Amino acid sequence: GAGVSQSPSNKVTEKGKDVELRCDPISGHTALYWYRQRLGQGLEFLIYFQGNSAPDKSGLPSDRFSAERTGESVSTLTIQRTQQEDSAVYLCASSLRENTEAFFGQGTRLTVV
Amino acid sequence: GQSLEQPSEVTAVEGAIVQINCTYQTSGFYGLSWYQQHDGGAPTFLSYNGLDGLEETGRFSSFLSRSDSYGYLLLQELQMKDSASYFCAVRDVSNYQLIWGAGTKLIIKP
């Protein structure tokens, strides 16, 4: 596609439920990033993929969070047993490895009630 | 490790010039980038400095000094639509990961 696509754009879930957030990067972009952004705050790094490998998982806040990427394309961020503190916008970005410009999707706004 | 520091908030007047600074501590990086994010929107790329010096793109300019571990974004002829958060970022040479500053909220007054 022309840009980074994330789905769903909005998600309301009950506390304790699992959610899956999807990111379709720009075709050919080998690097993919997930960030969390709370209202009025900066970008909180979650995980980075180079191809299908995740060299840096240090940002995942707990073992309830996991992510995978397949075919050097689509990535899924899964949050298990959601908590109210997980409510935030989850942003995905992709870039060419050697090119510094990152392209962001519009994000998934997650609300845990 | 890598870290970038920016002021949390800057206030300026419409039509004026404002400079947003970014200082960093990094063992090696591929240049400094700037991104703009409007409330409710996604960050969008503004500029990149791979080499020391000034890069100009319309009303926006960006500067990098590797010897001083310092860069800045300069916005001229401020317009109300420039009200947004601005993030600096570097790409780590060891793993190509993007490292981000915490962002500067630019408030523009009429």
Q: Average pLDDT value of chain A?
A: 92
Largest sheet of chain A: 7 strands, mixed
Number of strands of chain B: 11
What is the strand tally of chain A? 11
Oligomer: heterodimer
Helical content band of chain B = under 10%
Total DSSP helices of chain A? 0
How many helices of chain B? Answer: 0
Helix content of chain A: under 10%
- Largest interface (C-beta under 8 Å): A-B, 22 and 23 residues
What Rg of chain B do the Cα atoms give? 13 Å
Question: Could you spell the SSE succession of chain A in H and E letters?
Answer: EEEEEEEEEEE
Beta fraction of chain A: over 45%
What does this structure look like?
The complex is a heterodimer of chains A (113) and B (110). Chain A has no helices and eleven strands. Chain A has strands at 5-7, 10-13, 19-24, 31-37, 44-50, 53-56, 65-69, 75-79, 88-95, 103-104, 108-112. Chain A is globular, with a radius of gyration of 13 Å. The N and C termini of chain A lie far apart (33 Å). The mean pLDDT of chain A is 92. Chain B is mainly beta and 110 residues long.
Strands, helices and their partners?
The complex is a heterodimer of chains A (113) and B (110).
Chain A: E1 5-7, E2 10-13, E3 19-24, E4 31-37, E5 44-50, E6 53-56, E7 65-69, E8 75-79, E9 88-95, E10 103-104, E11 108-112
Parallel strand pairs in A: 2-11
Antiparallel strand pairs in A: 1-3, 3-8, 4-5, 4-9, 5-6, 7-8, 9-10, 9-11
Chain B: E1 3-5, E2 9-13, E3 18-25, E4 29-37, E5 44-49, E6 53-57, E7 60-65, E8 70-75, E9 84-92, E10 98-100, E11 104-109
Brief summary of the model shown:
Chain A has 113 residues and is mainly β.
Please supply descriptive tags for the structure shown above:
heterodimer, A: 113 residues, mainly beta, four-stranded antiparallel sheet, 11 strands, globular, B: 110 residues, 60% strand
